[in-house]
From TrEMBL, chain A:
Family the entry assigns: Belongs to the CcmF/CycK/Ccl1/NrfE/CcsA family.
GO cellular component: a single term: plasma membrane
Function: Required for the biogenesis of c-type cytochromes. Possible subunit of a heme lyase.
Transmembrane helix in keyword set: yes
Gene Ontology molecular function: heme binding; heme transmembrane transporter activity; lyase activity
Domain Cytochrome c-type biogenesis protein CcmF C-terminal: 315-627
Alphabetical list of InterPro entries matching this protein: CcmF_C, Cyt_c_assembly, Cyt_c_biogenesis, Cyt_c_biogenesis_CcmF
Keywords: Cell inner membrane, Cell membrane, Cytochrome c-type biogenesis, Lyase, Membrane, Transmembrane, Transmembrane helix
Protein name: Heme lyase CcmF/NrfE family subunit
From TrEMBL, chain B:
Source organism (scientific name): Sphingomonas horti
Segments forming domain Thioredoxin: 35-173
Top-level taxon of origin: Bacteria
Alphabetical list of InterPro entries matching this protein: Periplasmic_diS_OxRdtase_DsbE (IPR004799), Redoxin (IPR013740), Thioredoxin-like_sf (IPR036249), Thioredoxin_domain (IPR013766), Thioredoxin_ResA/DsbE_sf (IPR050553)
Protein name as it appears in the record: Redoxin family protein
Gene Ontology molecular function terms on file: disulfide oxidoreductase activity
Length: 641, 175, 179
């Protein structure tokens, strides 16, 4: 019965979202405004119904109801509870349901909490949100019903792919979905603002928390994904400019640009059309990313369950929503005034350049990712665009952007003087110069980009905390702290990238049992290789004893793992984390002389890459919290005034 | 003019749509064809691929042709599937040479004893050197080589019975 | 987590088991599938014996070859400068088997042979770009992650300038002009 209840809730929610769209559209026509009274309550009920449907699906999974087709195909009664739970969205139908649930709840949250924008605009926004939801409801109900029953219940399920049984993977999709839905709300606000011609500061303030939340989640998603690739692929790389990675980077770049332009719009009521465009682009990029990943039209190192048919569906929705929004933009935006002009040396001036560089980088990643397909469509010739292109095309712009990031926050809004800005930047510039000197004198030749990265990281690190100097730290607003922490995170991450690429020591050797090999400051002895077994895999496990410059010995146990079903082999790297980097070891195959292939890396300060990513997300969270708190206080003050 | 520019994003999106729609409808073909078709076979001089056979050098193909050059390995499963078809081609009078990739002569001998031996000459390419030089991307692959030692055709994957007419036609074309 | 990087060769290559993606796909050959158990045989030998025994009984599908990796496939050149040159090149060459990876990051045997070839030729004094060109002549531009500069890729290489120019054009109206 639970499954039928869930399906009923889903149908009802879909019907309500249609109602929400129609009522919203009616309410926007002059003289029919009273229809709008229904939109808010409908959005709230629709959100609750999707939640109910999703809860029903979780329930059938947790109870292992094998008469439900989806459960029988993707779960098993023997699985640990966590994976029964996570198995709910570990498949296509379940993940679609999760997506509409998050979408529905986001719509409900907008309906309940949003009081800054006019009622008209809110109704238009909710109608747009309903339009997005409807497409996904249609897909769920007509072609991928998650609650379908089997004619005869299965004895037991076929199980979740054992390789997917991992806490990290269980929570990876929800993180990304939340991020994408956050951008969809920004998109709906942008459409609402265009329809009602209310592109103004109130619109920016209403949209900002959603953009910020989405951006935090996307940051976490990319950081975690990069660390996965780093320790799972077993070759020590952390970013490959792979299509799937680019697909996750593009929405992040767009959201980052949007985050900054929305601040200009909220503070100076300027960059109106541009911000609307970015909101459309940001959501487009999340749909484009989903499409590229799911359709499998580009070859990637990260395997996904690809399905061209579902790809076509996502593409159709993409065409409908994005094409529609861009057409609306073209028709309406000429009525939107762009707002006041800026001084070149001012906070908003710096933010314009920030947006210019971010969108250029986004464009480069977009063009580079799709160019092979473009060429193949035109000429049938196959070519590859990889790291050499992205590094040389986007790298310099990224470094320029980071340098600007140190200067921007030190400029005042409206108008500043170049001389005073340079004065404030004296210390960061000095830091940069000192590190440059150190690198030139002491470090071996490390290449232009790593050198620039390293010296900029230090300068920018100092520069990013500069906005706090001379301030009462207790009274500094939380969102200023957020900005400082996030910018510092960028510097930290950049330092990690530069160190990794400049100072990594690599040793690829074949070693006999008992033999000792050297990598950087570490000596690593191969003690033993023996078979071990896990719950659903067997492996060869090497015992490596390592010590740094003859210091205390410690043990690493890299594995070469075999999974019977589906038959798969993975290298499980063993990593030892020190305060100043990681020792990364991988066990390879055995050669004819009985020697084992070892891959050993010493990666100084590589951990800073992900530490920085975490700091960026934390900075976003502080900022979000600070903004929400300030608005709450502001509202209270108005309420009691 | 200004109006016109406002439609640029939509135009860009239409181009994007066209490109990815092409990506969706094109047949999923991940094969990398050799660019050496139409060019002379790279020079090589390989040791014998099976015990009791002579070595195999690109000079052996001068003036002899057209012939098939089969890239195979004893550890490759589709090669087993392909073996009867190669035997059939040999019985139709086609000369077939082979390069065994990353293989041991004794393993090749076992393979031939089990699956039949359609080969004239067999060379052993233990580090895939000749395979790389020919632009071949895996096993099995079959090349049509004409009398001048020029590669005329590449067949990727095992030759199925239904591929035989195409192979014979290519051989005829290379005559 | 494993699924994130899983490489089922069947999906990737479409045509199943013509060749396989090294370590990450199913294996016979050097693959070890054995039940762990008490060992009376010296441990180092155990794995090999089991591996050998099971290689015989294991289904032969998706096999690797029986030969060890070529010299220089997994070993560095003694000259650090040459090794750095080789590594930089290998990171920009695409593996023909595991098509999403560079040959420096791929477990496929053919990638190993390509690494061996690159290192041998670098050690013999050949220029990296000559080796890249040699491979492009054989496999087409696809094999290089670094697109050539030619009419077909001009839009690609000009994209950064065009994008910046377009952005500057759009942004110019935002700034107040001073005399």
């Amino acid at each position: 019965m639970i499954a039928e209840g869930g399906l009923a809730a889903l149908w009802l929610a879909a019907a309500l979202s249609l109602l929400q769209l129609i009522m919203g559209a009616v309410a926007l026509t002059p003289g029919r405004e009273e229809a709008g009274a229904m939109v808010r309550p409908v959005a709230i009920v629709q959100g609750l119904l999707t939640l109910l449907a999703f809860a029903a699906l979780i329930a059938v999974f947790v109870m292992s109801d094998m008469s439900v087709k989806l459960v029988a195909a993707n779960s098993s009664s023997m699985k640990p509870l966590l994976y029964k739970f996570a198995g709910t969205w570990g498949n296509h139908e379940g993940s679609m349901l999760m997506w509409v649930t998050i979408l529905g709840l986001a719509g409900a949250a907008v309906a309940i909490f949003e009081h800054r924008v006019s009622n008209r605009m809110l109704i238009a926004t909710l109608a747009a949100q309903a339009a997005i939801g409807l497409g996904f409801f249609a897909f769920l109900l007509f072609s991928s019903n998650p609650f379908e029953r089997l004619p005869i219940p299965a004895a037991d399920g076929q199980g979740l792919n054992p390789l997917l049984q991992d806490p990290g993977l269980a929570f990876h999709p929800p993180t990304l979905y939340l991020g994408y839905v956050g951008l969809s709300v920004a998109f709906s606000f942008a459409v609402g603002a265009l329809v009602t011609r209310e592109v103004n500061a109130a619109f920016a303030r209403a949209m900002r928390p959603w953009v910020l939340a989405a951006w935090i989640l996307l940051t976490i998603g990319i950081t975690a994904g990069s660390y996965w690739a780093y320790y799972e692929l077993g070759w020590g790389g952390w970013w490959f400019w792979d299509p799937v990675e680019n697909a996750s980077l593009m929405p992040w770049l767009a959201a980052t640009a949007l985050l900054h332009s929305v601040t200009v719009l909220a503070t100076r009521d300027s960059l109106r059309a541009w911000t609307v465009m970015l909101a459309v682009v940001a959501f487009s990029m999340s749909m484009v990313g989903t499409f590229l990943v799911r359709s499998g039209i580009l070859t990637s190192v990260h395997a996904f369950a690809v399905d061209p048919e579902r790809g076509s569906f996502i593409l159709a929705l993409l065409a409908l929503y994005i094409g529609g929004a861009l057409a609306l933009f073209a028709l309406r935006v000429s009525t939107v005034k762009e707002g006041a002009q800026f001084e070149a040396v001012s906070r908003e001036g710096a933010l314009v350049v920030n947006n210019l560089l971010l969108t250029a980088i986004l464009g480069i990643v977009f063009v580079g990712t799709l160019y092979p397909l473009f060429v193949e469509a035109l000429s049938g010739e196959k070519l590859s665009v990889g790291p050499p292109y992205f590094n040389s095309a986007a790298g310099p712009l990224a470094l320029l952007l980071v340098a600007l990031m140190a200067a921007g926050p030190l400029m005042r809004w409206r108008r500043d003087r170049l001389k005073t800005v340079l004065n404030r930047m004296a210390l960061p510039i000095l830091g940069t110069a000192v590190v440059l000197l150190l690198v030139v004198v002491f470090a071996p030749p490390i290449g232009v980009l790593p050198t620039l990265g390293l010296i900029l990281a230090v300068g920018v690190g100092i520069g990013s905390v500069a906005p706090l100097w001379g301030r009462n730290l207790r009274r500094t607003p939380l969102f200023t702290w957020g900005m400082v922490v996030a910018h510092l995170g960028i510097a930290v991450s950049l330092a990690g990238m530069a160190c990794e690429s400049a100072f990594t020591k690599e040793t690829l050797v074949a070693a006999k049992i008992g033999e000792t090999k050297q990598v950087g400051p570490f000596s690593v002895r191969l003690d033993d290789v023996e078979p071990v077994a896990g719950p659903n895999w067997t492996a060869l496990e090497a015992t490596l004893t390592a010590s740094r410059n003859g210091g205390t010995a410690f043990v690493l146990k890299p594995q070469s793992r075999s999974w019977p079903n589906p038959p798969t082999e993975t290298s499980e790297s063993a990593i030892s984390t020190r305060w100043d980097g990681q020792l990364y070891t991988v066990l390879g195959k055995q050669d004819e002389d009985g020697r084992w292939q070892l891959r050993l890396w010493w990666k100084p300060f590589v951990t800073l890459i992900w530490l920085g990513g975490g700091m960026i997300a934390l900075g976003g969270a502080l900022s979000l919290f600070g903004r929400v708190r300030r608005e709450r206080r502001y509202h209270d003050r108005i309420a009691y005034a | 003019m200004k109006r016109f520019w406002l439609w640029a994003p939509l135009a860009g999106f239409v181009i994007f749509f066209g490109v990815v729609a092409f990506g969706l409808i094109r047949p999923d073909n991940r094969q990398i064809a050799s660019q050496m078709v139409g060019k002379p076979l790279p020079a090589f001089d390989l040791p014998a691929g099976a015990p009791g056979r002579t070595g195999f050098s690109s000079k052996d193909l001068q003036g002899e042709g057209p012939r098939l050059l089969n890239v195979f390995a004893s550890w490759c499963v589709p090669c087993i599937a392909e073996a009867p078809v190669l035997m059939q081609l040999k019985n139709q009078g086609v000369t077939i040479d082979a390069i065994a990739i990353r293989d041991r002569p004794e393993d090749v001998a076992t393979f031939l004893a089990r699956n039949g031996d359609p080969y004239d000459k067999i060379g052993s390419d233990t580090a895939s050197r000749v395979q790389l030089a020919m632009g071949s991307s895996g096993v099995p692959e079959t090349f049509v080589i004409d009398a001048k030692g020029v590669i005329r055709h590449q067949h990727i994957g095992d030759i199925r019975p239904e591929d035989v007419p195409e192979i014979l036609a290519q051989l005829e074309k290379a005559r | 987590m494993k699924g994130f990087v899983l490489k089922p060769s069947r999906n990737l290559l479409g045509e199943g088991d013509r060749t396989k993606c090294g370590d990450r796909a199913a294996g016979g050959g050097n693959t070890l599938r054995f039940a762990p158990g008490p060992s009376t045989i010296p441990k180092q030998g155990l794995a090999r014996i089991l591996a050998f025994a099971l290689a015989l009984v294991a289904t032969p599908a998706l096999a690797d070859s029986n030969l060890p990796a070529a010299k220089w496939a997994n070993e560095q050149l003694p000259d650090p400068r040459q090794e750095a040159e080789a590594r930089t090149l290998m990171l920009t060459l695409r593996c023909i088997v595991c098509q999403g990876q560079s040959i420096a990051d791929s477990d496929a045997e053919l990638a190993g042979d390509m690494r061996a070839m690159v290192r041998t030729r670098i050690a013999a004094g050949e220029k990296p770009e000559a080796i890249r060109q040699w491979l492009i002549e054989r496999y087409g531009q696809w094999v290089s992650y670094k697109p050539l500069v030619e009419p077909m890729t001009w839009p690609l290489w000009l994209a950064p300038l065009v994008l910046l120019g377009l952005g500057a054009f759009l942004a110019r109206g935002r700034f107040r002009r001073h005399r």
